């Protein structure tokens, strides 16, 4: 009984510590704003909405160290933790080694260190067949094995910087295939950046991905997608389409249950909201719809975590 109560207390603590934010590349900024200014504008706007984490792309960081330090001071003052997308992790060494990619990776890790980020994220798949499980030139297992040397080296570089390296299931492999990659790489600081809906893109039930990757998850993309009838005759009769959180076929409540109990980073876990492949209403202003999507998503996640905390408290 005591062990059960301790577990429930840990669940409550972990739920309260989880950080809600957004994938900044999709959060629209005013026209004409420079990339450096976009990041600061987003951080201020999202902090006002109660967010405590923000994901930024490598290209949205200034090359001026003083500017980076100013940005760090701002995030510290607003209580916002940053997560950086680092390019080039799969070009560090091995069969896909690329000097330019490695240079970008090293620079990104250097910048992330400046901010004291606990985790950085990357991805292999680049939204095409070649960088996915459907590349017919070799088997899925051979494909995964070919990624190990670079991921292992990238993981060691990241570990030396005191960070975890999270690999997104980025429209490339199923969750269980990525589990094989992580187990083969065999580094404690290399795990998953769980995208809750990308499983649809490799014709996998995303709930299977979530179950498989929860014990490896260092960070997330919280995404929902709905299966809808395909309107174009001659295509596969159903397809996945982005939607507001809670309105699709991803069980986000169950996702949080799994993550809070199995993620090695459950305490302070980043819950980063990202839209799927959306079908915006052509009769409404696109920008208004995008802002509305994020506002609803942030509130949805706040309400979900609050409900989970109450549920856990009632079990004590």
Automatic annotation (TrEMBL):
Keywords: Isomerase
Xylose isomerase-like TIM barrel domain span: 44-282
Taxonomy, superkingdom: Bacteria
Pfam family, one: AP_endonuc_2
Alphabetical list of SUPFAM superfamilies matching this protein: Xylose isomerase-like
InterPro entries for this protein: IolE/XylAMocC-like (IPR050312), Xyl_isomerase-like_sf (IPR036237), Xyl_isomerase-like_TIM-brl (IPR013022)
A GO term, aspect molecular function: isomerase activity
Protein name per UniProt: Sugar phosphate isomerase/epimerase family protein
Species the sequence originates in: Paenibacillus aestuarii
